[in-house]
């Protein structure tokens, strides 16, 4: 058994882990090890953000082209060319070759170690038969994994998870999707766009995107239905049966037809996709060796230091800490974490706000790349009320010169949630084509606590969709 020492050891080589390692040793002679059991670059690069958006974007562009006179007439008949879409997707995930990511790590002074890392005591990490020791910090960045509900026959049916759906090589003609959140809605969007004959969403609750403003889920549901997607609310599988099941590999149909019992009826499909949430990847991580409970999210303070661990050497960033399960927020946490590690290693004070992650609590932006897109930041009206805010609301359809010029069928809606006491935004939601490009302005307004009186002087360019900001502010003049 060998014994190696590094200044910083990071378990988990996704975007959060990469950023934590890079920031912790930047501009110094400190050493870092990045431990990864699969692909360096993690879930986002190969199985989530990148491949899903590569599947969704072609459909958005085709829809926009069909809504533009002078362009629509020149379109070839038919829909998307699946092979070309898959090929572009495969290029973005580098065909699951992480050599460029490994080269990036090496170029930044980070050693990549293949294997499953686990804690073995204070500042100790085991990888296979090796024991590594950290001089300054160990960072947990192991993320989450798709949850499979405990439904009779479901696991035995080898259902698809988001990994299969984003990396599909065979399109199921009939597909049942279990869930009504972001992953389920995006999956339904690209299955329909790529030519599935029947897409059915089984939603346990009564709305899509339940954490968003109600109008967001309603508009996404309406759009999905217009593209032939069936949505069954208040519905969960009672059991699943698939006699001819086969492990055919990621993104390939896993055997023969699957029957989903709904209690009073049944559905037969070529594949079932489970998009029913995620669980932290902490089992087997050795947390018990440092007094932390296994199998749960790892609680951290705003420095990303793990609560309950003695000393200031153990950190957790990204989805594994449960604060904000978004890639960009995990990277944000990692930048804070890396700076804190560096400051502590060098004996520098770290009272400055840059050493505390706060935006991942109520100031996290998110874009759902459905058609229409849903872009949001901060609190919904309901969440703000439950937090005790006295709020004013600005809400209207997006109907400005810029939206009309962008496409003939533009249909969108916007809502601002304002704290009456401070006159600052605490939340914003936009729904419509390409509204993801609007959300950063709202993010700056929320994070910067910009009062309405100042926002009046942030004049939107004409003719852009951003002119909706002027209309929203105008609606507040008498409030």
UniProtKB/TrEMBL annotation:
Q: Could you list the residue ranges that cross the membrane? A: none
Primary enzyme class: oxidoreductase
**InterPro entries registered for this protein in UniProt:** Class-I_Pyr_Nuc-Dis_Oxidored (IPR050151), FAD/NAD-bd_sf (IPR036188), FAD/NAD-binding_dom (IPR023753), FAD/NAD-linked_Rdtase_dimer_sf (IPR016156), Pyr_nuc-diS_OxRdtase (IPR001100), Pyr_nucl-diS_OxRdtase_dimer (IPR004099)
A GO MF annotation of the entry reads:
dihydrolipoyl dehydrogenase (NADH) activity
Q: Could you tell me which residue ranges the Pyridine nucleotide-disulphide oxidoreductase dimerisation domain spans?
A: 365-469
Signal peptide limits: none
Q: Which UniProt keywords apply?
A: FAD, Flavoprotein, NAD, Nucleotide-binding, Oxidoreductase
Family according to the record: Belongs to the class-I pyridine nucleotide-disulfide oxidoreductase family.
Annotated protein name in UniProt: Dihydrolipoamide dehydrogenase
């Amino acid at each position: 058994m060998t014994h190696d020492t590094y200044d910083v050891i990071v378990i988990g080589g996704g975007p959060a882990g990469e950023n934590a390692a890079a920031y912790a040793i930047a501009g110094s002679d400190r050493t870092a090890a990045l431990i990864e059991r699969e692909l360096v670059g993690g879930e986002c690069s190969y199985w989530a953000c990148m491949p899903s958006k590569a599947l969704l974007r072609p459909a958005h562009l085709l829809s926009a082209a069909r809504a533009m006179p002078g362009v629509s007439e020149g379109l070839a008949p038919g829909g998307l060319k699946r092979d070309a879409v898959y090929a572009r997707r495969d290029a973005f995930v580098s065909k699951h070759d992480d050599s460029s990511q490994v080269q990036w790590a090496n170029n930044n002074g980070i050693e990549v170690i293949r294997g499953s890392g686990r804690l073995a005591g204070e500042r100790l990490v085991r990888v296979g038969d090796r024991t590594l020791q950290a001089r300054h910090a160990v960072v947990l960045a192991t993320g989450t994994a798709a949850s499979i509900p405990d439904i009779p026959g479901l696991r035995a049916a080898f259902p698809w998870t988001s990994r299969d759906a984003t990396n599909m090589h065979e399109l199921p003609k009939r597909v049942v999707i279990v869930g009504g959140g972001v992953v389920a809605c995006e999956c339904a969007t690209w299955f329909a766009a790529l030519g599935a004959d029947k897409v059915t969403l089984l939603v346990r609750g009564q709305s899509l995107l339940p954490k968003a403003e109600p109008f967001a889920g309603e508009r996404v549901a309406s759009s999905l239905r217009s593209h032939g997607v069936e949505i069954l609310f208040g519905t969960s599988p009672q059991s699943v049966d698939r006699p001819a099941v086969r492990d055919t590999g990621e993104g390939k149909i896993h055997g023969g037809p699957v029957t989903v019992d709904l209690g009073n009826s049944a559905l037969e499909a070529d594949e079932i996709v489970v998009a029913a949430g995620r669980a932290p990847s902490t089992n087997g991580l050795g947390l018990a060796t440092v007094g932390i409970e296994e199998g749960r999210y790892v609680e951290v303070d705003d420095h990303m230091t793990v609560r309950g661990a003695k000393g200031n050497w153990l950190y957790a960033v990204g989805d594994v800490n449960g604060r904000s399960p978004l890639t960009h927020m995990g990277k944000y946490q990692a930048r804070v974490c890396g700076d804190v590690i560096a400051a502590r290693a060098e004996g520098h004070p770290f009272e400055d706000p840059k050493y505390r992650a706060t935006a991942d609590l109520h100031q996290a932006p998110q874009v759902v790349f459905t058609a229409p897109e849903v872009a949001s930041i901060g609190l919904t009206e309901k969440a703000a009320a439950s937090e005790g805010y006295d709020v004013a609301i600005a809400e209207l359809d997006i109907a400005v010169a810029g939206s009309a010029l962008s496409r003939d069928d533009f249909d969108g809606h916007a809502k601002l949630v304002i704290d009456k006491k401070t006159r600052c935004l605490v939340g914003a939601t936009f729904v419509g084509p390409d509204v993801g490009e609007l959300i950063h302005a709202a993010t700056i307004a929320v994070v910067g606590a910009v009062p309405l009186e100042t926002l009046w002087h942030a004049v939107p360019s004409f003719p852009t969709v951003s002119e909706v900001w002027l209309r929203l502010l105008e609606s507040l003049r008498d409030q």
